């Protein structure tokens, strides 16, 4: 505690002696700092140069780097190493003399299973839940109780070249909430199997209202269909723009949109998918497609199947949107037909004349949703490839208020690749409506 005010005044009145160190005088003359280090008699001093403080700061920084920054760097490196290791624990399958051989590939994240594992998880293939282009799908259960879809594929020689390899590579490299996830693979002898996420609600086609009555599946509401459409669009957008290479689906249809327990859509079945180099040309030629004709873009079938573009997927998605609304329309309509009308043309004619879709028992919001789905669908199926929006734009259109969406030009026509014979087939009937049908009152 310092001297009091009274003591200071007393010292000033009586006077006091001052003393200083000769060492400090010489220290100050050299431009250094003289610091008292001892208060005993006689006092002791230390002459400090500017470098003294620089060394002190350096010492402090060294301590911080050693005990704070170094552990952080080590911790970050361990996290990076762990993630890298996790991505490097799987293998890629390639064809060699008709069999599949494992090749190390750090970009895949699928687990390897033996065929005995597959038999066990499917309980000897007891529960068949579907059949796709590449094989049959069974319901399975992992040792931890998790449910999976087990897709048993045919002989690789019968899969149009490297179809199985393409499907594995595509699915394993894609990670998105709206794309089905590949959990594992099995290649043992003639047995080639994919283990996928299980979708308890099946495929979208079961929930789109149709002409047939008595189905056990409850059709989705228009609000639910909008969410399914939006999720599906986001999944396709990720395939086109969110991966290292542009991935074409080339088989987009309601059967290839699966629904999880919360009806979140997952795009699946990449049987016709091909990679595009983003820095290269935007198209390539493909073999004969086996996708449903009503979803296939005209340019895919023209000139010996011609070029396949990202916007060919957009066309297929547009037909899917129109199918959603067409199914809802047919479910609420009555009447008999004398001829067939192409549904997209019917929609365009009604909307361009200021009319609505004549849906019954729907709210104003549901009517607006139906219109938005149709308008976006019509944009997607434009005859001119360049007039179709990219999937990023499609997502944006589905997310915005449909009242602001303008009708596209009337530049689409009845698809020439659907013949008169196809008019009577189940594949084309989904997008045709009776000309004389009148909506029920």
From TrEMBL:
SUPFAM superfamilies, sorted: Protein kinase-like (PK-like)
TM region(s), chain numbering: 52-79
Domain Protein kinase as annotated: residue spans: 123-407
Membrane topology value: Single-pass type I membrane protein
Species in which this protein is naturally found: Linum tenue
Keywords annotated in UniProt: ATP-binding, Glycoprotein, Kinase, Membrane, Nucleotide-binding, Serine/threonine-protein kinase, Signal, Transferase, Transmembrane, Transmembrane helix
Family: Belongs to the protein kinase superfamily.
Pfam families from the UniProt entry: PK_Tyr_Ser-Thr
The UniProt record lists the keyword Transmembrane helix: yes
Binding site for ATP: 151
InterPro entries, A to Z: Kinase-like_dom_sf, LRK10/LRL21-25-like, Prot_kinase_dom, Protein_kinase_ATP_BS, Ser-Thr/Tyr_kinase_cat_dom, Ser/Thr_kinase_AS
A GO MF label: ATP binding
Domain of life of the source: Eukaryota
UniProt keyword Cytoplasm, yes or no: no
Chief location of this protein within or outside the cell: membrane
Localization (cell): Membrane
Protein name: Protein kinase domain-containing protein
One cellular component (GO) term of this entry: membrane
């Amino acid at each position: 505690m310092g001297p009091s005010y009274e003591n200071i005044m007393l010292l000033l009145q009586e006077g006091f002696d001052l003393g200083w160190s000769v060492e400090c005088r010489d220290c100050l003359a050299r431009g250094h700092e003289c610091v008292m280090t001892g208060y005993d008699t006689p006092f002791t001093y230390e002459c400090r140069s500017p470098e003294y403080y620089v060394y002190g700061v350096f010492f402090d920084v060294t301590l911080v780097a050693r005990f704070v920054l170094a552990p952080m760097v080590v911790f970050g490196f361990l996290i990076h190493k762990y993630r890298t290791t996790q991505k490097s624990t799987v293998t890629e399958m390639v064809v060699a003399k008709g069999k599949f051989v494992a090749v190390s590939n750090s970009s895949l994240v699928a687990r390897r299973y033996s065929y005995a594992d597959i038999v066990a998880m499917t309980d000897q293939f007891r529960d068949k839940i579907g059949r796709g282009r590449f094989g049959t799908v069974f319901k399975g259960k992992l040792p931890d109780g998790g449910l999976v879809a087990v897709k048993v594929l045919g002989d690789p020689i019968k899969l149009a070249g490297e179809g199985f390899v393409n499907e594995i590579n595509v699915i394993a490299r894609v990670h998105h909430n709206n794309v089905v996830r590949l959990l594992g693979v099995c290649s043992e002898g003639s047995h080639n199997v994919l283990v996928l996420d299980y979708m308890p609600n099946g495929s979208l086609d079961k929930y789109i209202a149709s002409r047939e009555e008595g189905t056990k599946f409850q059709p989705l509401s228009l609000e639910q269909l909008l969410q399914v459409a939006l999720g599906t669009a986001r999944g396709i957008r990720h395939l086109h723009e969110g991966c290292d290479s542009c991935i074409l689906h080339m088989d987009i249809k309601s059967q290839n949109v699966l629904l999880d327990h919360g009806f979140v859509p997952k795009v699946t079945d990449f049987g016709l998918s091909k990679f595009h180099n983003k820095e290269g040309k935007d198209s390539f030629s493909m073999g004969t497609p086996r996708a449903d004709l009503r979803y296939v873009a005209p340019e895919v079938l023209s000139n010996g199947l011609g070029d396949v573009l990202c916007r060919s997927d957009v066309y297929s998605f547009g037909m899917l949107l129109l199918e959603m609304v067409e199914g809802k329309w047919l479910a609420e309509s009555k009447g008999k037909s004398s001829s067939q009308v192409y549904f997209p043309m019917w929609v365009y004619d009604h909307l361009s004349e200021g009319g609505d879709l004549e849906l019954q028992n729907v709210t104003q919001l549901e009517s607006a949703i139906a219109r938005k789905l149709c308008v976006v669908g019509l944009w997607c199926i434009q005859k001119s490839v360049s007039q179709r929006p990219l999937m990023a734009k499609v997502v944006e259109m589905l997310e915005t208020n449909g009242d602001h969406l303008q009708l596209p030009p009337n530049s689409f026509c009845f698809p020439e690749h659907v013949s008169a014979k196809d008019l009577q087939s189940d594949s084309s009937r989904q997008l045709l409506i009776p000309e004389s049908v009148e909506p029920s009152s």
